[in-house]
Design brief:
AB_hydrolase_fold; two-stranded antiparallel ribbon; 11 strands; alpha/beta; Rossmann fold; nine-stranded mixed sheet
């Protein structure tokens, strides 16, 4: 769900072709995926193969892990200005990128260093796959792509062990753009005690609204761009229990007692068909999710602003202040 690397029209054509092929085949593609559990010498199943501590704010690490096959995922970790001299512990924001993006996106394209200058918070920006959907897929033809396991069971624990963080509920927030906004909402609900604040920037709040188009989109993009014909939720029949477990609007009670923020655009570019369809569907799912939160009496901040499917730096800057105010102070 991003314009980087391939054109949106090209992605849509590829996805459409793959969707039709899978629907017509009548069989699920890909071998059954399983979550990797092997431990490497660095602990938590991770082995650092590149990067390491440096004097500046931005830290870079690349890992070998049995959770991700075929390549080695990386992470950028942005430290507060005074991290190296203060001796203090800091809260952490896990910031998740969108589809067709990677761990460097927020630094390369969105000035994350400038947006967080002077802020007392660590920002962790991990790889999540070109279309990994922050999930352990039902099937894969490219080896393990267990992004959910990598982030929650490995990276989060590794960060707490290697940086001065607060290893507790009030010490962590998660946010993301597009696919990453969905991942943030999903992780917050499935792992109740991990994140005290969640923010979704143009990320869907429901997998099942609008003809369940988001689930179709996750399956099609993951098959085409990530899993070599495998899928996140299963083809032609979905693993319905897994869809429900991942679906924010079906996990409303899991957001009680947490800070919840959402934003989506109301006026996508009428010339860009992909952008229009994408953001309109996201907006509708956020409206459904927001209505469910309101019906349950769960406070949240949901914004509708002009524009289409883009990361809004001004909104992020305002939201970051709210995130810091919710978390334990440095």
């Amino acid at each position: 769900m991003s314009e980087h690397h391939l054109s949106r029209r090209g992605i849509f054509k590829a996805v459409g072709g793959m969707t039709a092929a899978m629907a017509l085949s009548g069989v699920a593609l890909g071998a059954t995926a399983s979550t990797a559990t092997a431990q490497n010498q660095d602990g938590f199943g991770l082995r650092v193969v590149d990067g390491g501590p440096v004097a500046g704010r931005m830290q870079y690490y690349r890992f070998a892990t049995a959770s991700i096959g075929g390549w080695e995922p990386a992470v950028n970790i942005l430290l507060p200005d005074d991290y190296h001299t203060s001796g203090r512990h800091y809260p952490v924001l896990y910031l998740l990128h969108g589809g067709m993006e990677d761990f460097i996106t927020f630094d390369a394209h969105h000035d994350i260093r400038g947006l967080t200058a002077g802020k007392p918070i660590i920002v962790v920006m991990p790889d999540g796959g070109r279309a990994g959907w922050y999930s352990n897929p039902v099937s894969t033809n490219v080896g393990p792509r267990d992004w959910e396991h990598f982030h929650i069971e490995q990276l989060l624990r590794w960060v707490d062990a290697n940086f001065r963080t607060y290893d507790e509920f009030d010490g962590r927030a998660v946010a993301g753009f597009s696919m990453g906004g969905f991942g943030a909402l999903k992780y917050t609900a499935k792992y109740w005690g991990h994140f005290a604040s969640v923010s979704s920037y143009s990320g869907p709040g429901s997998l099942r609204q609008e003809g369940e188009i988001i689930t179709h989109w996750a399956n099609a993009t993951s098959a085409t761009l990530e899993l070599g014909g495998g899928s996140v939720y299963g083809v032609p029949l979905w693993d319905q229990a897994r869809v429900s477990a991942d679906n924010p609007v079906e996990r409303v009670e899991s957001y009680r007692g947490k800070r919840v923020f959402m934003v989506a655009g109301t006026s996508p570019d009428p010339v860009n068909w992909f952008d229009t369809v994408n953001e309109v569907n996201v907006l509708n799912t956020q409206r459904q999710f927001g209505a469910a939160l309101s019906a349950a009496g769960i406070p949240h901040d949901r914004r509708e602003v002009g524009g289409g499917h883009v990361f809004r730096r001004d909104v992020f800057t305002e939201d970051l202040n709210g995130i810091i105010a919710r978390l334990r102070k440095a």
